[in-house]
Design brief:
This protein has six helices and eight strands, in the order αβααβββββαββαα. The chain is of the alpha+beta class and 196 residues long. The chain is globular and about 65 Å long.
Length: 196
């Protein structure tokens, strides 16, 4: 009986080794109280302090977790449009769905999962980020590569927000977006004039 159990466990070992999800795993030390870091991720004002100029966040299961990097873009192309909170354990855990950026439309049609874990420490808060659910074909590798660069920047902005004591100033970002949107509208208008 003991040999049969051992043989069974050994035969399952390769399955366990291949079943682990390969994700983006990051940890950041934030020099701020846990409650402040939690609020930064779970309120509209908090998100606009470090992540994006606008957001629609309700920290409850099924609530929106929409982050608008380009609030002037068309619906569905603003950033993390139509994302949802999956789970909340106040000041410990926040998980939500996530999508690829608009320039990767095939991957954007699908969803990945981001899990944030918060822990109070003597000098602030430890934040762990896991981004899981990556496919391997099509635009998936490009989407993953994008977030391997983007998430460290987001966490650095969060650290900076608390180190300086000031929320991020989106004034210049908004001005650039408005210029871009105006240029795109002019191109479309010009293209419409030349069509029969």
């Amino acid at each position: 009986m003991r040999r049969l159990l051992l043989a069974t466990l050994l035969s399952l070992a390769p399955l366990a080794a291949t079943a682990a999800e390969s994700g983006i795993e990051l940890t950041a030390q934030i020099k701020a109280p846990l409650a402040d870091v939690w609020q930064a991720w779970t309120t509209n004002e908090g998100i606009s302090g470090f992540f994006a100029p606008e957001a629609r966040v309700e920290a409850k299961p099924g609530g929106p977790f929409e982050i608008y990097m380009n609030p002037y873009a068309a619906a569905g192309l603003k950033g993390a449009d139509d994302m949802r909170v999956l789970a909340v354990e106040p000041q410990k855990l926040l998980s939500f769905t996530w999508n690829a950026p608009p320039h990767l439309p095939q991957a954007r049609q699908q969803r990945t999962v981001v899990i944030l874990r918060f822990a109070a420490e003597a000098d602030g808060t430890r934040l762990s980020l896991s981004h899981l659910g990556w496919g391997s074909d099509g635009e998936w590798p490009k989407a993953r590569a994008y977030f391997e660069k983007a998430w460290p920047n987001v966490l650095a902005n969060l650290q900076k927000r608390f180190e300086t004591g000031k929320p991020y100033d989106w004034t210049e970002w908004r001005a650039q977006l408005q210029r871009y949107q105006a240029a795109e509208a002019a191109k479309q208008a010009e293209a419409g004039k030349t069509q029969p």
